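User: We ran a pulldown and think these components assemble together. Before we commit to crystallization trials, I'd like a predicted model of the whole complex to look at. Sequences follow.
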Amino acid sequence: MSINRRQFLRRAGMITALGLGSSFVISGFRKKEVAVAAGYTKASEDLPAKRWAMVVDMSKFKTEADYNRVIETCHKLHNVPKFPNPKDEIKWIWKDDYHHTFAGGHNEYLDEHVLHSPFMVLCNHCENPPCVKACPTQATFQRPDGIVAMDFHRCIGCRFCMGACPFGARSFNFRDPRPFIEGEISTEYPTRTPGVVEKCNFCYERLADGLMPACVEQSNGGLIFGDLDDPNSEVRKIISTKFTIRRKPELGTQPCVYYLVGGGDHA
Amino acid sequence: MYKGGKIVASLIIFAALFMIPFFYNMGKVNAGPDVALDTAAIQQLPVSDQQCVESPEYMKANHMQLLNEWREAAVRNGQTVYINSQNKEFKISLQDTCLKCHATESASKPVVLNNPVNTAGVSNPAINESPEFCASCHDYSAVKPLCWSCHFEPKEAAK
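Assistant: Here's a predicted model for the assembly, 426 residues in total across the polymer chains.
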């Protein structure tokens, strides 16, 4: 009866192999569920474009209310929270002064109005987005229509994209945003969780429904949105006929938000 | 084998102890989760629309893969319409498509407000618990997906 160590190990190994092997035989032969043949397509009302772009006509932003109406519409629609601590601030579209918007060697004799009025700033949806290159999980990516979008499911909160973005367009959820959403929660768009980065998405969820971005609708013509690739689009006409400036063009990211400074009438 | 008898005996005792729960529960049928597949919201739909995006059997086994595919298609590829195996089209939306039928059970649940900013007593669907349809199975199988930390049920269902 007595067996030595070698025999014991050999028998134990054989029993293990038998057990594993038979479980594989049983589960391996079990019929797998055949995937259902199915397809995906774009919605019929989806607005097609090759290169979405926006023109900010500063002449249309005259009063505080013009800015706030646009900001509030966007932030309300997308459930952007308002944190009491400015360090936690989340913003998709906001206003900033001339020096911060167009940083780097300004002309000090510029028109007072231009120098001191705030500018409407948002994600530039760059053609060469540095945030997309920085993202290690491809949570932020560029869609074929040029929109730099976020897949919040994939974001691991490393914030490389925030460091990469030269425009400060990205915000990080340091805290749970849900308790800080003001008023009624919008069911049009999900909220976020702590630990993800967020930014403007050019309302791609509205474009899929055939609607213009929410800020554009509320801007009374101050924000013009369209396909830069289409020679007949309004944005293309403005950009090719009038003088527009972009934020930090020297960085080569090719921002797709153009600023019409000086106004439509006397440009 | 040195002290072979004791080792083998201990192994047998260990195996017996290890398997007590299996033998203890053998033959007893566990009442499975009670999933409401025929809610009022579903009954109100015309008969042709009462079937889920795929067959119930398929959904039971593969809804998680399907949801993953939907997410990929809608968020990353901009394809917001799903064509099912019967060539029927559905809008890809957890809130507007799935929860249209499957969130009704939560109507009876109280809205929990723990919002330090929002003290006006405004209904806040975001803070509601997950719809009972999903929870009935997920609680039973101790699966805790994080859907409801971002998504929420439609307003009508969360009054």
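Chain B has a mean pLDDT of 75. That may be worth checking against your pulldown data before setting up trials.

User: Thanks, that helps.
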